[in-house]
Amino acid sequence: MIGALWTGISGLSSHQTALDNEAHNIANVNTVGYKSSRIAFADQMYQDRIGKGSKVLDAEKIYEQGNLKVTGVSYDVALSGDGFFTVSDKNNGGGTAETYYTRAGNFRMGDNGTLQDAAGNEVQGWIMSQIDSDADVVSTNPNITKFTSDYTKLVSSQVVSHSTYVETITAKTTDYNTTSKADSLTVFTGAGYKTESGKIADIEELSKAYATALQKYKEDPDGTSASAVTQISYIDFEDQGG
């Protein structure tokens, strides 16, 4: 009789754990990036082929795509499908940055100009590789065989501190059609096209010029703007007669 009571109590205890788990799922229905969990049960060891009740075997996460919602916040992003955001805790006091993975995309701009999650961990990204101007540009998309104006590259970025706010400036190249206009020598130069090396050279020169200007702006962000001065180089050919 006593054994039967303990067997029944084990079932009640297991179901209590399941109710606690469901309550936790309901409480986090509006938590960004939350994944619900479910309880798996198992029967306990048998004695003379008689079961001794149930127990909680595991509490497993259910990694299913949640509902996407438009928030109107500039830094909010969401993952559709598989994958995680990578964030790093660089201020943990242990000297070594800890890396975490999350599905929550409610990011914000930190005081130091970096993109951070709600806990202050910095969002990590891929390092942009340099393109050798002497080598061919190889597309990562097998369906694209031409070097088009869609080529983008980070030009420069700075965190500029003003007296009352912090300004983050990041610029990248997007379209070089304006530097690829056709001319009268279309037979030799092509109509509206530039070579790969020509485009990359343009980007490199723009990167240097923009980085220099951005550095000057950082040094004196509240200074008076000056108008640009046009500089023209030309050669005069005098009439030598003949």
Question: What does this entry look like structurally?
Answer:
The structure is a single chain. The protein is of the alpha+beta class. It has 3 domains: 2-61, no CATH class; 65-125, no CATH class; 128-223, no CATH class. It has 3 helices and 9 strands. The chain has helices at 2-27, 186-189, 196-219; strands at residues 37-43, 54-61, 85-89, 98-102, 108-109, 115-116, 122-123, 153-161, 166-173. The strands form 4 sheets. Strands 4-3-7 form a 3-stranded antiparallel beta sheet, with no helix packed on it. Strands 1-2 form a two-stranded antiparallel ribbon. A two-stranded antiparallel sheet has the order 5-6. The radius of gyration is 31 Å and the shape is elongated. The chain starts with a helix and ends in a 23-residue tail after the last helix.
TL;DR?
The chain has 242 residues and is an alpha+beta fold. The protein contains three helices and nine strands. The chain has three domains: 60 residues, no CATH class; 61 residues, no CATH class; 96 residues, no CATH class.
Topology at a glance:
Layout: H1 2-27, E1 37-43, E2 54-61, E3 85-89, E4 98-102, E5 108-109, E6 115-116, E7 122-123, E8 153-161, E9 166-173, H2 186-189, H3 196-219
Beta-strand percent range: 15-25%
Question: How are the strands ordered across the major sheet?
Answer: 4-3-7
The number of domains is 3
Secondary structure: number of strands: 9
What is the general shape?
Answer: elongated
Biggest sheet record: 3 strands, antiparallel
Range of helix content: 10-25%
Name the poorly predicted regions: 143-147, 178-191
- Following the backbone from N to C, one meets helices and strands in this order, namely HEEEEEEEEEHH
Count of DSSP helices? 3
**Secondary-structure content class:** alpha+beta
- Output mean pLDDT: 73
What is the rounded distance between the termini?
130 Å
Radius of gyration: 31 Å
